Amino acid sequence: MKQDANQVLYQKKGVTISKLAMDLLSKDVGDRIAPISYYQEEFQVSRGTMQNAFNYLKDMGAVTLAHHGHQGTYIEALDYIKLQESCLQREIMGIMPLPYSQTYEGFATAIYEQFKRLKFNMAYARGAVGRIQMVESGTYQFAVVSQYAAEHAISCGREIECLMNFGAGSFLSKHILLLRDKSAEGIMDGMKVAYDEDSLDQSKITQNLTKNKKVRLVNLRTQQTISALLDGTIDAGVWNYDDMIENHRLDDLKIVFLAENEYNNLFSTAVMVIRKGNDYLAELLRKNISVEMTLKILGEVREGIRQPYF
């Protein structure tokens, strides 16, 4: 009786098939592949198990190989969808901030565009803390966070690593301080100030701004900052300047731009993080995601010459 593909994947040899499929996802037609002995050592399996894994992928049409004698074996054809179907995790899953600004819309559009030949989906969630935890747990394969959030998490021992850095201004143009009292110049004693412990960026900037000041920190989701200011729940809060410009809210509240000692480019720089040591995923992402292409598409969405989709 012919075995179901799902049954094959979850047997002992299925792990080898999954690893091999993941490796081949990072290859192109015309690439020379390593000999069986390399994969045998890499995956710590017998030669027979390795040969069976190759045969399985060839039989299902996921890969076609051409042998050129002493020159080695080359990839003649690849079906990326079938390769994904042969992995235990059959869809690439990423997670990034909620796309409430054109920058985030552009970033999501860029990732979807570059992954269009593969099965891919993006989730959206507030708070770098949660996004990093979900990558570390394996729920998502990569996350987009600020460089500050990534470096802070790594310094705290989180099992992640930065795979790509998209440069200053790629996460957002800048953070700003919003004040309910338009006559105020900054945070003063007695103020109620928004504080989101799930946002490593907002919480750190807020700590910088309130240092040595007698204020009351109000636990609040970052996205609630403007409404909380307008209804008097808080007097001050850190927010995204892009949203203020795009939604024409410049006259509603007092905007204070932050000094260099209160802010740096680590907060405005987007990075992609993955679970530490996932070399096959790292190679796959590097193959499909280009920093230059991401910034080009992001810029086109910002300028209105490309329609966002995500």
TrEMBL record:
Residues 29-75 form the YhfZ helix-turn-helix domain. Residues 79-308 form the Uncharacterised protein YhfZ C-terminal domain. Coiled coil: none annotated. InterPro entries: HTH_41, WH-like_DNA-bd_sf, YhfZ_C. Pfam families: HTH_41, YhfZ_C. NCBIfam families: YhfZ_full (NF041241). This is GntR family transcriptional regulator. It comes from Enterocloster citroniae.
